[in-house]
Specification:
- The structure is a homodimer.
- With about 210 residues, chain A is of the alpha/beta class.
- Chain A has a single domain, classed as Alpha-Beta Complex (Spore Coat Polysaccharide Biosynthesis Protein SpsA, Chain A), CATH 3.90.550.
- The first copy, chain A, contains seven helices and nine strands; from the N terminus they run βαββαβαββαβαααββ.
- In chain A, the strands form two sheets. The first copy, chain A, has a seven-stranded mixed β-sheet with strand order 3-2-1-4-6-5-7, sandwiched between helices. A two-stranded antiparallel ribbon of chain A has the order 8-9.
- In chain A, a hairpin with a 5-residue loop joins strand 5 and strand 6.
- In chain A, helix 1 runs antiparallel to helix 7 and helix 6 packs across helix 7.
- The termini of chain A are far apart.
- The interface between A and B is medium-sized, with 30 and 30 residues.
Chain lengths: ~210, ~210
């Protein structure tokens, strides 16, 4: 399956700015991206990195052999152009910040039936998609899960939903680090641990702390 | 399968006090509980409500025919007493605030192999369990997912994990209402909608608003 992995190269993960500086955010975003690309390949997918700026050649050995498409337009426009243009085509879209994605969870997504298969994100987002019909288009603004269901319904397309905590967890804010530390298995988890983050329990709730 | 559904009858859902008064929180907690009990039954389970106080007989027709056990001790002690006491016994534990639980997601849990099968909650909790070995015990304080894995490992028990956004979503805080409104299908969703809550998008993020 062709799998587009969108990545925002400029100022990635800006909502982590309170806890990570710009270089750290870039390194952490790359670690998540590498984990996603690996998981896509292990699930039998062929990843294409869809990035807003060309990667530096020395940037990331994890991208060796990965096709790169550069498109500096907003996410919705860039992804729309990558979707199926004719019958019989299938394209998946998997966000680069799904640090908990595993080959198993992606395989479940790829095997979910429907003209469109959706992995909802927490908070109404769309973390991953499989599009099997040229009449579907994306709209990533706002509550995109609801919008994508509406777009599919308006085009009389069937929708499958994959129920996965791993695919529902995109890493946008420091609170999400707890999920990566608890359930991550690869680079992104190791990066956070090496950077000194650990899970702490305060007043019965789980958070993260960074050692000095 | 025997399925224990723990329910805190006194001041339920206290972290919703900013948006719901005490009567509303009780009604909403009962709506979630009824949805969970229904889903357990539809998944082939036999639910027992494990509650800290006896329900009033007029309280909830959704509990008709459901066994009720009253135990006012802390959750860990009460659940521990309900777990298997000998080989060959299986007991599941499904929290009463899993408003997105469906027969499908619970069936996946019940079919997950291992001496212990765990549905992790967001934030390191344990939202549901299947226990098939008498050496396992629970500890719901703090980051219980990690603790339950450790307890299983210390007793040389195998652990399966079910990857479900629906089972990972317990409803503790107002932000969780968005998940119920977006993905809920039954009483809890209807209760929130009838109470005037709706999904709103503010600055690109999804939240909820209550109409006046």
């Amino acid at each position: 399956m062709q799998v587009v992995v969108p990545y925002a190269a400029r100022d990635p993960k800006s909502r982590l700015a309170d806890v990570l500086d710009a270089d750290e955010r870039r390194a952490f975003a790359r670690a998540m991206r590498a984990d996603v690309v690996d998981a896509v390949r292990a699930a039998g997918g062929t990843p294409t990195l869809l990035t807003t700026a060309p990667p530096e050649s020395s940037e990331d050995p994890a991208l060796d052999g990965v096709a790169v498409a550069v498109d500096d337009r907003p996410l919705t426009d860039a992804v729309d152009d990558a979707l199926p243009e004719g019958p019989g085509e299938t394209v998946a879209v998997v966000m680069a910040d799904l640090a908990l994605a595993t080959p198993e969870s992606l395989t479940r997504l790829f095997e979910t039936t429907g003209d469109v298969a959706i992995a909802p994100g927490r908070g109404g987002g769309t973390n991953a998609l499989v599009v099997r019909h040229p009449d579907f288009r994306v709209d990533y603004h706002g509550a995109s899960y609801r919008d994508h269901r509406r777009i599919a319904a308006d085009a009389s397309l069937s929708v499958g939903v994959v129920d996965s905590m791993r695919l529902a967890t995109d890493v946008d804010e420091p609170v999400d680090f707890a999920e990566v530390l608890l359930h991550g298995e690869r680079r992104a988890r190791d990066w956070l641990a090496d950077a000194g983050f650990e899970v702490v329990v305060r007043e019965g709730r789980v958070g993260v702390r960074r050692s000095e």
